[in-house]
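Help needed: design a sequence for this.
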């Protein structure tokens, strides 16, 4: 297959590009910066201009759009604007470009986020019965911003249809891979420094997905013409933060981890120029549509996933090359 990944130079894009490249597909990443990669990288600016990047998409089989300013920052006015505009504008740009193509891709997967659901301590959120957030009393403004951002992003994506292209918005939970600088590396860094204790009350749920299952879920979404609309991508067993951190400590081989209460997390987030939402918001997201489609997770349980990720993290630190699920099979 010819697979094009606008914004595919980041954490999730690298996981997908590596996976599909090693499976033998022709992968093209659209990036604002030229770079050396094992797959093809074509430069675009993500702005309403035409360019060679359109030829990369015309005649391709799949477009997986991941472009958008990183949400790993403080949510001041300027960053908020850039976070929303970079997602909505690139989505609109791809829509307009595909409308002019003689052979647009047969499927377009657009990133969205599991954060679109409300803070949920009481019950799981699936695509059918889950409640979108935004109006919960007492929810921090930063949480409401993320939900507004995701809602605008999905609205732009579904505003117009394409006669030859099926559309899926991927409401993904946080994707864990052992890559340096990724979310797992960050969390493991806390554990390695003795700071990997319970965060906040510890009762909030963590939704997550192992990178191998993420790639396999994306493949299923590509292959199944009956699947369109919004699809949750998350492991089937969200886990409370206190248990999540304990299992990560055990996977690393330590019992000790300093807990952090809410004000410590707020202080740390301010110091690191990020937001506390990732640690404190309760995400209890489950992938009902994937399950109904017969998807089977390789890593449904966090304890097993954490051990596998730690093992590969150690191997990569020792100089090993990143492995994909294809290489492992
Ligand atoms: N990481 C997760 O677990 C997770 C979970 C749920 C949802 N998501 C969503 O999935 C997408 C990909 O996640 P990620 O972690 O891979 O993000 P990432 O590492 O921040 O990568 C996003 C890519 O978007 C491009 N980009 C940044 N600003 C842009 C702009 N103003 N205009 C056009 N392109 C821009 C960058 O590519 P260039 O600089 O090369 O152009 C960057 O590599 C994001 O939209 C994220 O919100 C991620």
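Sure. Designed sequence:
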């Amino acid at each position: 297959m010819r697979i094009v990944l606008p914004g595919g130079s980041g954490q999730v894009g690298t996981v997908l590009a590596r996976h599909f490249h090693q499976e033998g597909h022709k992968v093209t990443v659209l990036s604002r910066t030229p770079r050396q990669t094992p797959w093809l990288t074509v430069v675009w600016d993500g702005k309403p201009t035409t360019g060679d990047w359109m030829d990369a998409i015309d005649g391709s089989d799949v477009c997986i759009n991941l472009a958008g300013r990183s949400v790993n920052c403080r949510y001041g006015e300027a960053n908020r604007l850039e976070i929303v505009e970079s997602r909505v504008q690139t989505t609109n740009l791809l829509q307009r470009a595909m409308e002019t193509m003689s052979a647009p891709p047969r499927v377009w997967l657009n990133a969205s986020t599991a954060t679109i659901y409300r803070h949920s301590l009481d019950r799981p959120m699936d695509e059918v019965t889950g409640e979108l957030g935004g109006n919960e009393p007492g929810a921090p403004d930063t949480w409401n911003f993320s939900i507004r951002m995701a809602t605008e992003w999905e609205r732009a994506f579904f505003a117009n249809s394409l006669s030859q292209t099926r559309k899926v918005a991927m409401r993904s939970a946080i994707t864990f891979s052992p890559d340096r600088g990724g979310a797992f590396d960050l969390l493991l860094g806390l554990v390695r420094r003795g700071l990997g204790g319970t965060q906040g009350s510890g009762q909030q749920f963590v939704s997550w997905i192992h990178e191998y299952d993420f790639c396999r879920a994306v493949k299923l979404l590509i292959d199944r013409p009956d699947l369109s609309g919004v699809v949750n991508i998350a492991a089937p067993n969200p886990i409370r933060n206190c248990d999540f951190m304990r299992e990560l400590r055990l996977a690393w081989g330590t019992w000790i981890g300093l807990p952090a209460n809410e004000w410590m997390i707020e202080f740390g987030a301010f110091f690191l120029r990020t937001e506390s939402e990732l640690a404190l918001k309760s995400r209890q997201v489950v992938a009902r549509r994937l399950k109904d489609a017969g998807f089977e997770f390789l890593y449904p349980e966090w304890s097993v996933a954490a051990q596998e990720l730690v093992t590969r993290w150690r191997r990569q630190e020792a100089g090993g090359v990143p492995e994909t699920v294809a290489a492992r099979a």
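Residues 77-99 form the longest helix (23 residues).
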